[in-house]
Amino acid sequence: MKEEKLRELLEALSVTEKIGQLIQVPGNMLNAEGQELGVRDELGIGEELLRNVGSTLNVVGAAQVRRVQEEYLKRSRTKIPLLFMADIIYGFRTVYPIPLALGCSFEPGLLRRLCEATAKESAAAGAHVTFSPMGDLVRDARWGRCLESTGEEPHMNAEYVKAMVEGFQKGLSEEGKGKGIASCVKHFAAYGAAEGGRDYNTVDMSERRLRQDYLPSYKAGVEAGCEMVMTSFNTVDGIPSTGNRWLMQDVLRNEWGFDGVVITDYAAIAELIAHGVAKDQKEAARLAMEAGVDIDMCTGCYANSLEQLIREGMISEEQLDEAVWRVLRLKNRLGLFEDPFRGADEALERELFLKDEFRALAREAAVKSSVLLENKEGLLPLTVKEGENRKKIALIGPYADRKDALGMWAIHGDQKAVVTIREAFEEMPGLDFSWTEGCETLLPEDYADLPSLIERGERTCWDEKKRAEEWDRAMTLSEEADVVILALGEDTIQGGEGGSRTRLTIPGDQRKLLSEVRKRASEVAVVLFAGRPLVLDEVKELADAVLLVWYPGTEGGAAIRDMLFGKSEPQGHLSMSFPRSVGQLPLYYNAFSTGRPYDGKTPNRFFSRYTDCPNTPLYPYGYGLSYHSAEYGPVQLDGSTLKRGGSITARADVTNTGYRDGVETVQLYIQDVTGSVVRPVKELKGVVKLELKAGETKQAEFTITEEMLRFYGKDMRYRAEPGLFRVGIFPDSSGVPEAEFTLE
Ligand code: NOJ
How far apart are CA 244 and CA 539, in angstroms? Predict the structure, then answer.
């Protein structure tokens, strides 16, 4: 529709119809098979408004979307189509590894490709908008939503968010084709910094840190053209985001020029009351409107108060019109006025869902995001050759055969299609193995609500007999085997939204299983499933090899088999630091220099250190082993002075010293030695992935420019300050940059 026509449409709407556009309701209020009024009553939304609500969430599937849209349009006077939004976080029917895993790929292009593939499946299923990517930077593994983040690194997060937005929205602007889906960057802002890692908790930090570390990823999403932004649940400097005018207007719209739709997170306007910044729904609605929030997700605040606020002159009709305009414009961009069923197509669903090409991509992504944490004596890859004197293999552990090892947000995924490790092993010619689970993932002490889940029938648990049988079988198999592959991990319900933890060890009887298996088997390789960094000191000590696969998606089992047996090499490098102890959290590589930096050796307590634990992580950010090995030569700089507008090239030779070809993830770190404010000990500024044949040497090359050195100085201006910088080219973040140059 032409803009003029759209304007005319807006002008022809009644105030109630306009307000409707700003309201999002859960799908069950719009159920085409008969309106379920329960939720409607709860939200207090009247019949007329309900006929005019602008959007719904998590109603997907071509048939369902078409039905709901058809019914909706029948009852609507304005005939403005309904917008269908959904949480499509890391894949739709085909599920990819969780974002924290994808962050380990150091390959934004991979994320772009899989978001594009996801958009194809999702558009066929009738989705118009995805609530993704999540740009929240994470530093505290206690927070369950680490799994939805691409990690702790501001520069990488920005690259990933950009790539994801581009992937989802590819083809979106091609008129009427139903290609791509609109992307909603969330949770603006700094939701990942919840104090103590407890979900929905306070976020409070300096504006400098906010701008320097937390905002760049959202900004990258805006610059990549995301159509929507979601507010976060948390406060920022004492003001909940959803009522935070500074964030939404001054930063997002005025500074960054965002002119798309701002939506709240679920019920966040009403939460302004619980936060204690609004006394009732009406005040909450006013604060959110004033902040520039367009859509109220699933509360009655806008529905019940906006009309009155306008009548009383607290909110102007122009403000209302602006918000409605943004929603209408998005619908128009999606081509909904021409085709309200945009892309929703059952035949296309059949063609696209779990297509071979997408499955192959899922397998590639799982390999590129799995991190080899340990490989003592080169246990992996295992070799299996028919006719040779083979090793006897036992596959043991609760994740040996789990179809649901997908993480909490794979809500549209097809669990039946998931390849488990056991299934993948069975498909492998010449592989004999025995298997058993051994134990369950969780015990009640690991998850407070477990007993009530069991009581409600939402979860089953083994009886004593089964428990004893499984355990005994695991012990017998370990005794008989040469190599035990032990598939362990965090339970999926321990992560995701509301999944905060204070103990980060592998739950249940699994550590006991590991130590008992260790006593019996000669070699033990742990395949580790997780949605966050865990405390792995015991695992590191007991296992010969540890392959961290996170929640690896639909093709997880196949990818794991390929990696274990050397058909492919695990390529991931940690997107978050792994602590030695929960007490170290928050933990991140790019911490500020302190006045008392500790060398890790001196027996003197008056340093910035713990007296019972090193400062360093167990596994640093950027770390990951491979089946090849590599050596890094010294950094060579092609100059000692960087002029503004100019550049310096940093180079280092990287040699594959192993017997296999491989890919090295070469990382550039820079330290700004002195600044007007304290600077991090080092910052990642670039990555290249080098393919190296066995024995081959290649040069990693990075161009350093003044822009890469900018930060918010004492006067809050964003610029690079002259002075000394140090450069390192390393395989992970533990190195100390040494090569020096000066910025003029
Ligand atoms: C709450 C979550 O915080 C957010 O990430 C999600 O998109 C919405 N619910 C909608 O389901």
Answer: 44
